[in-house]
Structures are given as structure tokens and as C-alpha cells.
Amino acid sequence: MSVAGRALNRTKDWTRRVVDRVRHHAGPGRVVRRRPCRGGTAVAVLCYCLSLTPSLLPRSWWLQGLIAGVSAVIGYAVGAVLESLARYLLRWAGIRVRPRVRRVLWAVMGVLGAAAIVTVTAWSVRWEGQVRRAVTLPPQVAWWQWALVPVVAALVATLLLLVARTVRLGTRIVAHAFDVLVPRPVAYATGVVLAAFVIVGIVQGFLLNAALDAIESTASLADQGTSEGVHQPGLPTLSGSPGSAAHWDTLGAQGRTFVGTATTRADIAAFTGHPAEDPVRVYVGLRSAATLDERAALAVHELERTGGFSRSILAVMGTTGTGWINDQGSKPLEYMWGGDTAQVAMQYSYLPSWVSALTEDEAADTGRGLFDAVYAKWRTLPAGSRPRLLVYGESLGSFSMESALDGSLPALVEKTGGALFVGPTYDNPLWKSVTAQRQPGSPEWRPVVGDGAHLRFAQVRKDYGIPDAPWGEPRAVYLQNGSDPVVWWSPSLAFHKPDWLDRPRARDVSPAMRWYPLLTFWQVVCDLAGADSVPDGFGHRYGTMPTSAWALITRPPAWTEADTARLAGVLESVREPGLLD
Questions:
Q1: Residues 320, 300: contact at Cβ < 8 Å?
Q2: Is residue 531 within 8 Å of residue 576, measured between CB atoms?
Q3: In a 10 Å sphere around its CB, with 0-12 CB exposed, 13-18 middle and 19+ buried, how is residue 230 labelled?
Q4: How far apart, in whole angstroms, are the C-alpha atoms of residue 560 and residue 309?
Q5: How far is CA 229 from CA 173, 257, 509, 514, in A?
Q6: 210 vs 212: CA distance, rounded Å
Q7: What is the rounded (10 degree) CA torsion for 11, 13, 19, 25?
Q8: 493, 521 Cβ separation under 8 angstroms
Q9: How far is Cα 450 from Cα 457, in angstroms, rounded to an integer?
Q10: Over the stretch 511-556, which tens digit does the pLDDT of each residue have?
Q11: Residue 298: is it exposed, middle or buried by C-beta count within 10 angstroms (0-12/13-18/19+)?
Q12: Residue 265 neighbours by CB under 8 Å, 6+ apart
């Protein structure tokens, strides 16, 4: 027989063996096991129960079902690994568990597991009421809705397990196909690598990219729109006006809202009872210039054109992902200082904050570029006639402004006349630094830094007085709620208990909340979805707290606490930004 003929026969023989192995390992029952893994089931029930324990914020029944289902699958995977390890050790030790003992253990586990699921699900209604009470929501929870939690959890867990078993089946098929050519360990390693490659390719190359493309397309269209009731300004003190070099149609949707809803001198005069000026608002959008440096230069040019450098207050404002600036942070300055203010901001993205956070470099570079350009011009002005230079940022905007100051408290004290950061993220460089250096005994959720000479943390107004020591100039304030998942979520939460769960706790954190590896991380991730669905003063909602903060930071002439309370009442209806902004 020729060489080609022998090669053909070998190929046919190899193909036949591969087909036989594939048929065997893809036969009935290979995706759905006749009996679940005992160890996996036990740990899955445990993780289900732990997932019902309190977290930072209240949850809807369907979200709790989703959390519980994913938690159960994580537990099942961990339990399956532990059971496999236990079997190996028992075989190595020569110990054999009788079938009857296994059946008894399985029956006991089933009874105890069912009892645990029912009991903990019922008890979690009380836990949920405690969390709701902590954020001043009615504690009542509809029992019939909470009874659907295990149903949703079971559906989610079943779906995820089917996907996992399908992947495992594919891995085995590939491994057995190579088993006839290479040693078994190499074959299985090849199967695992190929399966991982396919999964990553599908998730990252298809699902994730498709989702991000859809989000970007939607966000781009939204950025080109204009909110209802917002019109191009005619005042020369505003960007986007007819004489502005930052044209109206290049500002982006949030930029047009920022300049199109500026406080008027009439509103300010009506509030203060004194003559007022038209405030300066400068905004530069992504489409206003081609490069970051050009946009920063345009912002300085706009400040010069509008007379921003001749005002008493000049505030550099950090934006959230879509370019939004919270009016709760911008309007108080204009009322307090009779319109003798200038505010400047620059867009770095039109994507929602939770997407923009994936590429924080853009926020950091934009904040640094804008502040450096404004600061360079500000330093050239005579010392006696410079405006007071402030910085402000909320959420991802606070990260942007902290990056502009290189995450340094000395830089903040040296370069600015005050700062307000609201709802900082876990990755804020200055926030991380000063929180880590807090005085021993001061809680992470309200740290005392040094002697409080420049920096204070607050959730309610009385916190400004902590510590009871002189508060010098310049002043900086962090507003952070104890129940804000934007502040307290971090990757380290998966494996390390956070200091903010130590006692004493913030007033809005349930005393029943506990830390569990991986599960608490997953719970707080899900809390992000409801961060804006709670009353002001909780979650990621700060209400009119920036009004009191600005009053203490800038100390306007002849301004009183009664004025602060009255202005807070005026601004109560102003919408706060959400995680989608």
C-alpha cells in the first residue's frame, strides 16, 4: 500500500474514533446531570441565604432574585470544586462512603436546605424593612412579591448552570477529540484553552462590543439633541451665544443645558433683594475643538471674552460622563455672590458615567488640561485683583478635578481658594490618600484628616463641625453618604472587609449588614442600580447639601445661616444627576 493510502486509512481511523468519543460524551444526560452535585448544592443554598442579608440600599424583589440566583451559582461552583477535592482525598486515604450513607446525607441535606431557603427568605423581609427604614422609606415590604424571590433565583441559577454545563460539554468533546493524538492531560488542557478562547471571543468580541456600540450610538444621538425648554442664550456672558467662539451646536446636550439654564440676574436680585449681575458660564464641548489642548485654550479664551477673570469667584467644574453639571453645585454660588461669578467646564465624553468610568484617563486628562490652562492664565493676573479660584466635581467629575490637583492636599491648598467634592468614587486619588491618613479612631465614612484645618467630610450639616477645631482657609469639603455605593464600591471589597462596616457605622447603614467574601462585592455592585432611587441624603443623592457646603467654603459677605436655609428651599426642586448622566 502506498504512503498516501496508509495516511488516508489512519485519518479515517482517527476520524472514526473521534466521532465515537463525541457521540459518547454528547449523549443524553451529558448537559443535564441526573443528580446535582451534593457539595455544590449545599454551598449554593448557603450563598442564596447570605445574599438575602442586608446591603447598603433597598432592593426590589426581582433584583433580589437576580442577586440570589447569581450568588447560588457562584456557591455551586465553589461547592463542586470542594466536593471534587474531598473525593480525591478520600480515595487517597482509602476511605469509601457507603451508598446508603450518601442517600441519607442527600435526604437530610434536602430537608435542611429547603427549610433554610423558606426560613431565610421569610426573615429577609424583616432585614429589607431595616434597610428601608435606614434611608427613611416605609419599612413595609409586600410579602407576596418577596415570595417570588426564590422563584426568580431558581430560574436565573438554572439558566446559568445550563450555560456552564454546555461549555463544559464542549470542552470535553474537544479534549476527547485530541485524546487520540496527544496525552490526556495535554488534550484536556487544549480543550480548556480553546473553550476559554471561544467564550472570551463571544463575550468580548460580540456581546460586549455590540452592547457598547449600541450605547455609544444612542449616547451620540442624545448628545446632539437639546432638552425641552432649553434655548440658545443671547447674553454675551454665556458660551453658545451669538458672539461665542464655542458655538451652540458644538456644546453637546448637557453643555447646552448648562448655559441655557443659567441663573438670571432677575432671579438673583429677587432672592437677595439687591442688584445682581448676569453670571458667567463657559462650556466647551467635545465638538468645539479638535484636540484637548485646543479645547482648554478655547475655554480660557471664552473666560477672557465673557469677563470671567474679573469676577469675584471663578469655579472650575468637573463634569460627569455625559458632560452634566449638577445645578445643585453650580446655582448656589451664583445666588450667594450676586451673580459675580464665573464657572467653566469642559466635556470629555457623551457616554453615561458607568461607561465612561471604564476609561478614566479621559476624565483625568480633561480635568488636568482644563485646570492647568485656567490656572496658568489666573497666575498672570495681579494678586490683588484675581478671582477666588474654586474647584467642584460630583461623582466622576470629582475624580476629574482631583486628578487636576495630582491627588495632593498640599496642591489643593496652594492652588485653590476652596473645593467641593460630592459623592467621590473609590479611585479618586486625593480621597484615597486622605482617607488612608485619617486620625486613628475616626470612621472611614467620616474621617478626620489632620486637625481639620482645611478638609472636612460631611453627610449632614452638623458634620461640618467635626473636629471641634479651627477651620482655616482655604476650605475643602467632601460630601459622602454612608449608603452611597458609588463611594464604597471597590474591587478590594471582594476579599477584604471594608473599614466602613466597622462600628460606629454611618446612620444610614443597617446594623445587620455583614461582610462576606465575593457576595458583599456582588451585593454592592447591584446596589449601584438603585443608587438614585432613594430620598435625598441617602445613596447617591445629596440634595441641597452643596448649598450649605458652598456657604461655609466661600463665606459670602453678609450671608447668614437663614439665607442658606432659604436658598436650599428654593433649590429643592432642582434635579440631581444620576448614574446615567
A1: no
A2: no
A3: middle
A4: 27
A5: 61, 9, 39, 47
A6: 6
A7: -120
A8: yes
A9: 12
A10: 999 999 988 999 999 999 889 999 999 999 999 999 999 999 999 9
A11: buried
A12: 275, 276, 277, 278, 279, 339
